[in-house]
């Protein structure tokens, strides 16, 4: 019974990611459908290709600062708070 549930979960997650990829494709290319006859075919291929990896960007502004050895925003706030609390005592 558990094996069938795992399979069902994988299928559900795959369908969810396909729907999300389709939504992203429609958002990224909003006016292409009116001008391009092969839009549906191209969109289906794009969705299948990108459904497993939907990270939109890997530039230095969008990715985690830890990849570059910098603390995250939360870590910066904590260190500032820690310094402030030490100065008050």
Chain-wise SSE layout:
Blueprint: H1 2-28, H2 32-35, H3 39-50, H4 73-88
Helix pairs in contact: 1-3
Brief summary of the model shown:
This protein has 89 residues and is mainly alpha-helical. It has four helices and no strands.
**Which radius of gyration do the C-alpha atoms yield?**
22 Å
Poorly predicted regions are none
How far from one another are the termini? 60 Å
Helix content class: 55-70%
Order of helices and strands: HHHH
Overall form: flat
**What percent strand?**
under 5%
Structural class: mainly alpha
Number of helices: 4
Major beta sheet, specifics? none
Average pLDDT: 81
DSSP strand count: 0
Based on the model shown, name its key terms.
66% helix
